[in-house]
Design a protein that fits this description.
InterPro entries: C-type_cytochrome_biogenesis (IPR051263), Cyt_c_biogenesis_CcmI (IPR017560), Ig_CycH (IPR056412), TPR-like_helical_dom_sf (IPR011990), TPR_CcmH_CycH (IPR056413), TPR_rpt (IPR019734). This protein has twelve helices and nine strands.
Length: 399
């Protein structure tokens, strides 16, 4: 902040100069006026002395005229270049008073309307915090400076959870939801914080939050994990196993939390069997497999070349834009029948069976680019579990 205040002080000095320079010029003009008055008084005294000498007979009339002319020349020489006196309508005290009030008012207005706290926070966030307490302090001051920042509120809530302050975290997540909307992941975080803030007691509020989150996104991980914890704490071990298995299916293979989750499933299974129960096996999800026949519209056959690439893929109608499964052919292969299934997934976590509704797309690209081409064909949305063969015609310009 030192360099900021130095810059502000420099600008203030520049502003004061516009007020003080006229005052200093006025003082210099006053000095010039005083010197002129003195020169006139000396001239009059010299003329009076010459008249006295003439009356005493020391000087004759010619000598008198010569002496008077010499005194006049000296007066003109002393007053030459002196500007005419300027009269200030404001008076001298006003510029000095303004010079005092300007910095005082400027400082007061900046402290009231300015953003010195945000400037300081920006400088602090440019450096890594030395402790969790320092990070929390920064986030708290950032939220105080920008109370409408959903991002700041969210990170402060996460920080409170890391510090085992679920009550404060629940308040931050509630404010985040009010600003950013009722997004499933935010509802899940809010429900989790509220559950621990209530001493691990399930409540209607927590139930409503998790229900809303899972209704919007059945794979919302925080809600699934929380429901599993609540079921385990209330000795509903089969429910805990089911929720945690659903959560486990959403995590990538390299996720570090998979081991802890699998350990929780194992403990729930042991307690269920120790109580005389039997672990119900989760139903195996049927792999999705779409069969589609792709052909080219007759009016386009003269406009394409046999070596042009044809990309056939399925993408989720509501979800990530990346293809879920894809195959590559050429125009020479058309018409062609292909199968798109989980085995053709572009990424392990993006499988056809993970999305209830998809759209089939076929694109011709002379440059061999799957994301842009010359001609395209699209199907209507259909269930990923569809088993009936589909037909897809490439018949439209790719825009």
């Amino acid at each position: 902040m030192i360099d900021f205040w130095l810059a502000a002080g420099l600008l203030l000095l520049v502003a004061l100069s516009f007020l003080l320079i006229p005052v200093l010029r006025g003082r210099r003009a006053q000095l010039e006026e005083d010197r002129t008055a003195l020169n006139v008084a000396l001239y009059q005294e010299r003329v009076a002395e010459l008249q006295t000498q003439q009356e005493e007979g020391v000087l004759n009339a010619a000598q008198m005229d010569t002496g008077r002319a010499e005194a006049a020349r000296e007066l003109l020489a002393d007053t030459e270049g002196v500007a005419a006196p300027r009269v200030s309508r404001l008076g001298k005290p006003w510029p000095l008073l303004a010079a005092i009030l300007v910095p005082v008012l400027g400082l007061g207005l900046y402290l009231h309307f300015g953003a010195s706290d945000k400037v300081e926070l920006t400088r602090e966030f440019a450096q890594a915090p030395q402790s969790m307490e320092e990070m929390t302090s920064r986030l708290e001051r950032a939220v105080a400076a920008q109370p409408d920042s959903a991002e700041g509120l969210y990170f402060l809530g996460r920080t409170y959870m890391a510090q085992d302050r679920p009550g404060d975290a629940a308040k931050m997540f509630e404010r985040t939801v009010a600003l950013a909307g009722r997004q499933p992941e935010l509802l899940g975080q809010w429900a989790q914080a509220q559950y621990f803030a209530d001493g691990k007691k399930w409540s209607d509020k927590v139930q409503a939050l998790t229900d809303e989150a899972l209704k919007a996104d059945p794979k919302e991980v925080t809600s699934l994990g929380l429901l599993g914890i609540a079921a385990f704490e209330s000795e509903r071990y089969q429910d805990a196993i089911d929720y945690w298995n659903r959560l486990l299916a959403q995590l990538p293979p390299e996720d570090n939390s998979r081991a802890a989750l699998q350990g929780g499933i194992a403990r729930a299974s042991e307690k269920l069997e120790a109580g005389g129960g039997k672990v119900a096996q989760a139903p195996v999800a049927k792999a999705a497999l779409l069969k589609v026949t792709v052909d080219l519209a007759p009016e386009l056959k003269a406009k394409v070349q046999p070596g042009d690439s044809v990309f056939i893929f399925a993408r989720a109608t509501s979800g990530p834009p990346a293809p879920l499964a894809a195959k590559r052919l050429t125009v020479a292969d058309l018409p062609a029948s292909v199968e798109l299934g989980d085995a053709d997934a572009m990424m392990p976590q993006l499988k056809l069976s993970n999305f209830p509704e998809v759209q089939l797309v076929a694109r011709i690209s002379r440059a061999g680019q799957p994301t842009a081409g010359e001609w395209i064909g699209r199907s209507q949305p259909l269930a990923s579990s569809t088993s009936a063969p589909q037909k897809l015609t490439i018949d439209s310009p790719d825009k």
